[in-house]
Structures
1.
Amino acid sequence: MEKCAGSPSAGGSYPQKNAEILSSQYGINLFLAGLLLTFAWAVHAVGISKSHLLSYLITLMLIQLLWMLWYLCRSCTQRRLIRDKDTHAGARWLKCGITLFAVITLILDSFKIGYYIDFSNCLSPTEGIFPVTHAVHTILQVYFLWCHAKDVIQSFKTLERFGVIHSVFTNLLLWTNGVLTESKHQLNEHKERLITLGFGNITIVLDDHAPQCNCTTTTLCSIFSQGIYYLYPFNIEYHILASTMLYVLWKNIGRKVEHHQQHKTPFKFHGITVGMIFGLIVLTSTIAIVVVYLIQIGRSKIKSELALTMFYLHAIFVLALMCTAGIVALLIYRLEDRSLDNSKNPARKLDAELLVGTAAGSWLLSWGSILAIICAQAHPKYTWYNLPYSILVIIEKYIQNLFIIESIHREQDKVNDDIKTLRIVTISRGSTLSLTPSYKEIYNGRAAHDSGEVPCLFKGSICGRENGGAKEETSQENSSVMHSTSDFSFYSRNSVTNKRRVLKNIAAFLFLCNLSLWIPPAFGCRPEYDNGLEEIVFGFEPWIIVVNLAMPFSIFYRMHSAASLFEVNCKT
């Protein structure tokens, strides 16, 4: 009988599991084809031009647009139906973040359109079609994510799996294209700066993809060409955020959602003043360091060395503060006795996997720098600061990942702590057990509802008067219990409140620190390029390949950590 009962369930899930496997393989092949096309363009492969790559990306975006329009139209016709929602997916702050990045991406597209108009005589038409298609794609995709990121799709599941996974890998390819374009620009600037640091033995060959014709308006061309590369970091973050939100939507297809009350977690500035102040100091100083670094690096050997030394000292100080804050938070968690939420949650699982996975990018660069310092024959003075910096990067990510992952898995209190304490203390006084309602009844205000009585715990004097002198002793005893309970409850409440205030300040401080550490690599402040020691030990081309592969993950880690810490701050 058990086999017969289980068989339909197994048979019903088998086609959907096949659909999941088939759709994932379709997406991977779609991505690999685009990745090889991108690589072929990057290395100037024979017969492959930028127009071929852009045509492929345009086709993928158009297919995704058709699927999103079909899904939106079908949703409008079925808007009266009650649908399951994943309350953990597509948080409002995440939607606001992706909207901000999307707006800046639209500005980037407008710059590309202007750049194409100025160089239209020698550029392929695809370079004009691509930003227009990308702008439409961005607008519709943000609207789609705002309206449907929480959906748990239960109809047309096989078709929807292919549509969603196509959207995931389309965004990943657009992210790859943005990373490669921005990395090539950074590499060209790095090659020009290496000579000033005294590394003349490195061959300087610029990878130039500039159009071979004159601009119609020189001033506008300069604004467009320079402005594009300052906007790419936001475009890169937009596509990786979109792909993660779509991936959660894909994992939720056909899922059975547990219906339970979702606790709202609004963000409040109250109680996090200290963390915000210290975080803003770090953010302001980081922006100043980046500005000075970009001005000084490459001007002369002395100025470049001073810029690198300044960067390392500032980063060492910030990372040490972050390690200390993370350790304090973990110690507070060890003192608390709260269970972990192990329920199935695709969004939370993806957050944890991304934290550890993308941290590997920074760890790879840090271990490369440590090995270079150990093996190098000559050590300029500024390179020694790289050793504590690299070690702290590794340790800080270990500690921060532990803090964030434990924070997002901790259960929220379902009942006020004071009421639990009140119940425990009152029960411990055996003489008042019969007079005290349960804390659920106190919380809901329904104590003695059926009999119409007023709980004597709160109205001891009234009960005493109504029931005569025989109750006065009980009333006085209840009064004394209330005093002792209030004292104990007040102490417990203050202890819990103080711990949570410290945790919220730590989360706010780490949030701003991660935003601060996102800024330098995202806007061209990359000592891994400019240090020069790693290129000598590993060779120029091998180390540049390692940096270009690892840096995008390192940059994404900081933004993803900031988003996770914002959620932790709201939840604490």
2.
Amino acid sequence: AVAGSAGAAAAALWSEVNRCGQNGDFARALKSVNKILQISKDDVTALQCKVVCLIQNGNFKEALGVINTHTKVLTSDIIAFEKAYCEYRLNRIENALKTIQSASQQTDKLKELYGQVLYRLERYDDCLAAYRDLIRNSQDEYEEERKTNLSAVVAAQSTWEKVMPEDLGLREATYELCYNSACALIGQGKLNEAMKKLQKAEELCRQSLSEDSDVTEEDIEAELAIIHGQMAYIMQLQGRTEDALQLYNQIIKLKPTDVGLLAVIANNIITINKDQNVFDSKKKVKLTNAEGVEHKLSKKQLQAIEFNKALLAMYTNQADQCRKLSASLQSQSPEHLLPVLIQAAQLCREKQHAKAVGLLQDFADQHPANAAEIKLTMAQLKIAQGSVTKACMILRSIEELQHKPGMVSALVTMYSHEEDIDSAIEVFTQAIQWYQQFQARTNYGYCVFQPKSPVHLSLIREAANFKLKHGRKKEAISDLEELWKQNPKDVHTLAQLISAYSLVDPEKAKVLSKHLPSSDTMSLKVDVDALENSHGATYVRKKAGKLTGDNQQKEQGQGDVKKKKKKKKGKLPKNYDPKVTPDPERWLPMRERSYYRGRKKGKKKDQVGKGTQGSTTAGSSELDASRTASSPPTSPRPGSAAAVSATSNVIPPRHQKPAGAPATKKKQQQKKKKGAKGGW
């Protein structure tokens, strides 16, 4: 009777579980499942249902705990997908991969999850094969999602592995497919095409979301945030930093829930700020430290963020923090260049150039594959210290770059600056020899000599010009002969060769001069009249008129006589008087004339009172209001000039000498004696 009642209770509970599952009420279903397990704790179906209910409620850790607790009952064949899914959602990606691979039967659900796991592990080739297999062997309503995932894998390959994406033939009917296609184009550097794809993705996104009446404009903008973020990234790559910065800040104001998107945008703003606006960068760097960011971004994205954190610490003079971050990055990626370069830059900021060079040298010795870039940095530090010769030695130790035209040009310039012409010529010689050694190519056991490459010939010519410039005629002759041998029709090279031989072996120069083309062949057939009458001519000859009769004879008679120009009459002053003799010194500056007595001081200075307080000046009478026009005229003050009537003959000042010294005497200022104290 007891067993019967328990069975009836269990049946009722199972009915409740079934009904709640169909309604999506997994919290209530979980309660019923727990009651069933109280009746039968090892019921396999009940345990499976409990795991599913916990997963649906987002309790992945608890669900995994149930699976691991009942391993004897819940074997891998029964619960493999649920266990792998819990591990995947808990970001235990390696464990999820092992669980999937250990399953005896690979169901469609496991294959779908397998593709997601491979994508998170950045094994894009395997992931691409997995999704292709799924699309080929499955037909259900999730085909569009699989194609979207497939396009995401192709975009990741193009972006992070620089693999040329193949045309999958996917119809870009959704905004997700357009977005992934744009990302693939960005990886190829086709920025303009990528921008058009993103604009199409934005349009499709708005259309699809606006059809749902429950979706608000804020929801649409939140969904478009990732598309706008990619648009801003393209603008940044194109150098439109102001537009990119404005769009980045607009996205941050929306406060999207995607911590990965916020971290990427904050990092890109920091790269725009560089060593400027560091306070804004310090605020933005907090967004890159949000919880869960490490699970949303790829390894290269996370590495780039850490590099920028170290650089920001250097720009903000946080030396210890910079060293700590760069050392951590170097331990994670020992062969990477940036950590050691950041450390060297920090040492240089601390004026420890020798220590920075030693650090770079140690890295170059440990990682020969990256030695070239490190040695270039070492040479730059030596040049900054003024050790140009040592910098040249470092550059010449980079064997794989010795023959490059850029390296040859740099070394020759540096040696010329140090006036070491022999070393500069040696650099040219080594580069030319390198090309000579690799000129021969083996073909079916025979040594075939190919014509010299344009770079090789260019180096020989530059070497010859350099030697001629520095007076090394004999050394330049061999280079010029080699160039002329390659191209006997090169007149310029032949002329240089003759010029060089003329100083060393004149007889040889005469022999070579016979190879110069004749003057007839060198003459240019140019129609002078047509050239002068052309639209772009700066000088146009006047067309001569027809000369006949007397005019023609006159023209012939005056063949060599130059035509005289008419003299223009000089302009006379307005007040010119021919009866008055002009001032012979009128052409001299006023200061240089014999009668110059200096500039007169202003009236105001003459009226300034000098003496004790309360005393009156000579000019005070002029300010007296009692002295009116009716008052009798006073006698003129000494030195005052009499008024001149308007009808008198006025002699212009330019045509006469002054009568004498000015009437008023010049007041001389008394010089202060040395050491005397002025003031009251």
